[in-house]
Amino acid sequence: MHLERDGELPAVKVEDVVDIARAAGDVIMGVYSTDPKTWESRSKSDDTPVTKADVMADELICSRLRSAYPDIPIISEESEKLPYEERRGHDYCWVVDPLDGTKEFVKRTGDFALMIGLCFHGKPVLGVVHAPAQETPKTYYAASGQGAFVLEGGRELCGEGLGKSKRISARTFGVRDSGLRLAVSSSRPPREFIASCDSPVTSSIGSAALKAVAVADGTVDMFPCLYSTSEWDTCAPQVLVEEAGGVVLPLDGTGDVGMADVAALHLLLRAEKAPAAAAVSAESAAAGGDASVGTKSSPTGSGELHLSYNKADLLSPRCVFLGRCTT
Fold this sequence. Notes:
Elements: E1 2-3, E2 12-13, H1 14-32, E3 42-43, E4 49-50, H2 52-68, E5 74-76, H3 84-87, E6 92-100, H4 102-106, E7 113-120, E8 123-131, E9 138-143, E10 148-152, E11 166-167, E12 172-173, E13 181-184, H5 191-195, E14 201-204, H6 208-216, E15 222-225, E16 229-230, H7 231-243, E17 247-251, H8 259-273, E18 315-316, E19 318-322, E20 324-325
Parallel strand pairs: 5-6, 12-20, 13-14
Antiparallel strand pairs: 1-2, 3-4, 6-7, 7-8, 8-9, 9-10, 10-11, 15-19, 16-18, 17-19
């Protein structure tokens, strides 16, 4: 599987990126299997932890990406950030989180993953999420226009390429359905959002990456990511969810968000993709909603309907990962 775009850059081979992710997963698990006293854990300025596993995985991923694709800049959570002036002129940019869910790593829950994303002119076009500590290690990957897949297994798959991969697909649901399945943070559950749903079923998952891929593979219907994130938290899983048939909706501001807001936002996105639908009122999708589909403003105040990447400001807005929403 190759990702090809216009321009002077050679095609990116998805299999190579999967191999890099799995190799980084081996490094992480090598640290995970040792005494935590040797992990060299410390807290960053935002009070989030970082360990030797984060640093070692980051070094492996970035060095191998630079070797394979020297002309593509890299944004990684654990590396010094290349100034925007130096990367703004590049068509492509890698967006990397070498260990998403470090808190879960430290607590030894196994609920963590690593992510490698690639954006083209600010749009995510390739994503790999590798979960090395699951009972059966899983590597999720997707490329724009080519579908989303999961490769299950560990080192026994070395040298076999992507031949044993299985296509994944998001679950179909309606926003008014009872019993919607939500992936939520165990440490900061979105209580107001949960309360706005009709008898929802929640699954507490530690890593944002794993919550997002649960949407992509149909385990849950949505993941309301209602806390601050950065580009490396959403780039790779966004490709997976979109290629599995879902969408990712950005949310502006810090106010409460409920299913009515999501319904109206989703209708706006559908109107953008199908102009003929623009005559439909958002009220038809969200009871009590009064947003006009003809405007480009969301119920939460944002004028943007898409997340973008390789920006000057690497922070991302809150968002909701949705499966195949029908309303």
